[in-house]
Each structure stands twice: as structure tokens, then as C-alpha cells.
Amino acid sequence: MVIATNPVGRLGVVGWPVAHSRSPLIHGHWLAEHGLPGRYELLPTAPDDLGDLVAALRSGEFIGCNITVPHKVNVAALLRVGDELQASAQAIGAVNTLVALPNARLRAINTDALGYLHNLQQTSPHWRAESGPATVLGAGGAARAVVFALAEASSPELRIANRSIDKAQQLCTQMAAQFPATRFVAIGWDQREAALLDAQLLVNTTDLGMLGQAPLDINLSPLPDTCVVSDIVYAPLITPLLKAAKSRGLHTSDGLGMLLHQASAAFEAWFGIRPTVSEALRAKVEATLTV
Ligand code: ATR
């Protein structure tokens, strides 16, 4: 257990801005539940100060931290010989968790992919990646983690629809090199509804539907009745997409679940204990969402 090397037990989330983060609430809940003496803080860090923060981790000031926007991609450049970069984090091209190791070394991992999959498995136990194509809306950082998770779970076909088609094509090419058994198809944004035919999973990874953003404009009628619809947006909890899916009678999976499950995998990386994503914790975090 890594905590033994750090008497203070400091942890935190590194981002800019970071005030909105629910991570202190989530990790604080688990620290108390497991009787661990850690303290999880907001660590607002401007891009120019990221190097100092990483140095503080190496000096043993922290057990570890979460990394969020805008540092998820850039933090890898601060790793050095002797550090550990998880193969999946490298493939996704983003790091969301650092673990301080002995001798000023760091372990850099990505728990977003696992978090997405664990949530889907918990909320939709009947869903099987192998059962059919999945359509992913978006090709940004979050999409990379979701696409990686689905390909690793043996999805036969991944259709990536994005406003900028070149980004979807790039993601398809990169992932195809690693997952030869999966068919990757880049889809133009205007063709997104055609990409719903036969899909067994639809996931929104764009910002659309988030509070303050335009809703996602998509007609779900081409989806088969067996399709699961998931959204990684969690504010609001029931996005317009999930609302439309529910009113069609489709099974849905929300973004709060992914947030909680990626946090659970990070906690396990620091403490060697996989904490439970309980209904009580979900309700606690849900109460902080404005809608
Ligand atoms: P994140 O790390 O949250 O995935 P990101 O990397 O900025 O954030 O990606 C945002 C995604 O939302 C992208 O796929 C983006 O499409 P582009 O690649 O074309 O920019 C998508 N997105 C954002 N606003 C959008 C809009 N108004 N219509 C369609 N897609 C949008």
C-alpha cells in the first residue's frame, strides 16, 4: 500500500480550473469509509506550474493525484526514465492518475477507459461488447478512452462519428493498428444517424447536452430496441440524449457512473483497495448536481 511511504496522506485533483470537481467529495467518502488517514484536496494548477506540482509528487509530498483538464495530455511529457507509463494510458494518449512511488518515481495511468466499462457493466449487465457494433459520437480525449475500452472489450465494429472527420479518421487509424480484430469506421457528422443502424451501444462523448451547451441533435429512431444508450456528460444527469432514449424505451447509462468508476480505479491504484460505487455515494454526488 503506497500510503505507508507518506505520513501526511495528501491527495488531490490537479486541473485549471478545478473548483467544480466532485473528486474531493468522492475520495473523501472512501477515505472515511476505509478509515484511511488521507486528505484529498483541490489542487488548482496553471499549465506553467504543472512541473512544480509533479516535482512535489516526486518529493513525497503526496500519495498521488488525479489529473484533469487541461493537463491530461501534457503531463506525460514530464515523465522521465524510471517512471512507469501504463500501456493503455500511452495508447489513449492521456493520463488521469499519478501514483507516487519510492525513489522519486511516478506511475502514470488512465482510469477513464476502465471507469467507462465498469459503469456500463454495472448499469447494463446484459450488454456484451461482442454482440454488435457500437457508435461513438465525438473523437476528442474522452472518446479515445471510450474507444480504447470498447476495442479492448472485443467490440467487433466501432463507428466514430465526429464533426471534424479528420479527427475521427486519425483515431480509427491509431486504434486499428492496436486492435486488428475490430473494424473501425470514421463517420461524417451529417451521417451520424445512419451510423445508428444495428448499433448495440450508442455513446455520446461530445460536450453537447452539457449544461450551457447546445443539446445533441440526433434522431434515435434507427436504433434497434436492444441498444444501450450512454452519455459521459453528467451535468445534467439526465441529458436530452438519455431522455430521448428513455422515452423510446431504451436502456440507458449515465455519466455520473463513469465519473464514480474512474475514481474507484484511481483509489485502487493509490491504496490497493477497490472501493464500492454504492447508491449512498451516488446520491451524495447527485445532490451536488444542479439539475
Ligand atoms: P474531451 O476531452 O472532453 O473529449 P475534446 O477533446 O475537446 O474534449 O473533444 C470534444 C468533442 O466534442 C470533439 O469530438 C468535438 O468535435 P470536433 O473534434 O469536431 O471539435 C465535439 N464537439 C464539441 N462541440 C461540438 C458541436 N457543437 N458539434 C459537434 N461536435 C462537437
What is the fold's blueprint, element by element?
Blueprint: E1 10-15, H1 23-33, E2 39-44, H2 50-58, E3 64-67, E4 84-85, H3 87-92, E5 97-101, E6 105-109, H4 112-123, E7 134-137, H5 141-152, E8 157-162, H6 165-178, E9 183-188, E10 201-204, E11 228-231, H7 240-247, E12 251-253, H8 255-271, H9 279-286
Parallel strand pairs: 1-2, 1-3, 4-6, 7-8, 7-10, 8-9, 10-11, 11-12
Antiparallel strand pairs: 3-5, 5-6
Bound molecules: 2'-monophosphoadenosine-5'-diphosphate (ATR).
2'-monophosphoadenosine-5'-diphosphate binds next to α5.
- Principal-axis shape: globular
Small-molecule components bound: 2'-monophosphoadenosine-5'-diphosphate
Major sheet: order of its strands?
2-1-3-5-6-4
Please work out how many helical segments DSSP would assign.
Answer: 9
Beta-strand proportion:
15-25%
Q: Unreliable runs, pLDDT <50, ≥5 residues?
A: none
Number of strands: 12
Largest sheet entry: 6 strands, mixed
Rg computed from alpha carbons, rounded to a whole number of angstroms: 19 Å
Description:
The chain has helices at about 25-35, 50-60, 85-90, 110-125, 140-150, 165-180, 240-245, 255-270, 280-285; strands spanning about 10-15, 40-45, 65, 85, 95-100, 105-110, 135, 155-160, 185-190, 200-205, 230, 250-255. The longest helix is centred in the last third of the chain and has 17 residues, at about 255-270. It has nine helices and twelve strands. Helix 1 (about 25-35) packs across helix 8 (about 255-270), helix 4 (about 110-125) crosses helix 5 (about 140-150) and helix 4 packs across helix 8 (about 255-270). Strand 5 (about 95-100) and strand 6 form a beta hairpin. Helices cover about 35% and strands about 20% of the residues. Strands 2-1-3-5-6-4 form a six-stranded mixed beta sheet, with helices on both faces. A six-stranded parallel beta sheet has the order 9-8-7-10-11-12, with helices on both faces. The mean pLDDT is about 95. The chain binds 2'-monophosphoadenosine-5'-diphosphate. 2'-monophosphoadenosine-5'-diphosphate binds near residues 142, 143, 162, 167 and 205.
